[in-house]
Design a protein that fits this description.
With 332 residues, the chain is of the alpha/beta class. It is built from 11 helices and 13 strands. It starts with a strand and ends in a 5-residue tail after the last strand. The structure holds oxa(dethia)-CoA.
Length: 332
Amino acid sequence: MVYAAFRSIGAYVPQKTLTNEDLTRMVDTSDEWITKRTGIKERHIATDDEFTSDLGLKAAQKALERSGIAKEDIDMVVCATISPDYFCMPSTATIIATKLGIKNATAFDISAACTGFVYILSIAKAFIESGMKKNVLIIGAEKLSAITDYSDRGTCILFGDGAGAAVISATENKEEAIIDVHTSADGEYADLLMTPNGGSGSAHDALDKEAAGCFMQMKGNETFKVAVRTLTQDVKDILETNNITSESIKHFVPHQANYRIIKAVGDALKMQPEQVVLTVAKYGNTSGASIPMAINDIYEEGRLEAGDLMLLDAFGGGLTWGSALVLFSPLQ
Ligand code: UT7
């Protein structure tokens, strides 16, 4: 039997920051409001000539280097993004793979918004366990500043840019395998968080970015309530299904959308503060990149050790949501 193991992590954030103070000069808001309602203090913003693939490439280079697996042995590259370099093609994954010198691998993007990393984790696991692939590079990369409306205070205070990547590889040792991944979606709630125009549903003459509404729009408060309800249930389910108690979780790594959502779900699971990984204050919401960026933070702080059990959870546009129970199993 073949299993899938989580071998390495890497991340990258662009240098420039956008603080709450900066935002007060752009929209009617305050540092106090943003901090109290979201926990965010600043986010990183890419430059005009820095694309999603550039962020993803730097994260992927680190993950590859740390994996001990040669780029020649990577047979699939998957990127989760809602802010790809190009609207339709080529995919961001093919650009990253080519810049890394990975040849002839399967490469594609997926769109699952903030749940993107959990989705690509499940894809990597499924391809490896079926025997179709052996070493999969997964990347969550976002330049959300490109699709953010900086005149809308309900959304522009939330989002930032960044990327995270991981290498998942085949193992025969069940003790080091990813335990489980859940992914779900419900299009009934599509209008809670969307970029309404710019796709095949738009008239050709409405493709001007601002007029066409290609920026993100969100019904924040409704999204918040559905997020807390859905995530709490999903995380309880994955723990119960796998007979794992929340005390056994070393690191609870939630999608970093809002401190209050993280706190509500963490409290419902009776997580202790030292179990909960929090990066929302410094990166804001980086959608599909937020979970691997958070894992990278604890790795670089020396807090993530071989054999540690992580619980991941995420929620985002679609609506999509998911959770995963993952052991950190480096090869080196
Ligand atoms: O990652 C994908 C999933 N996304 C999420 O999970 C995000 C979920 N939603 C949220 O994080 C929160 O709903 C927000 C942070 C977006 C908003 O917080 P809230 O506590 O739900 O506020 P609200 O939308 O209910 O608005 C409360 C008030 C309103 O004013 P009135 O109508 O009470 O006078 C808003 O107009 O706060 C006002 N408001 C602001 N005030 C200052 C909204 N945005 C701002 C702002 N600064 N930036």
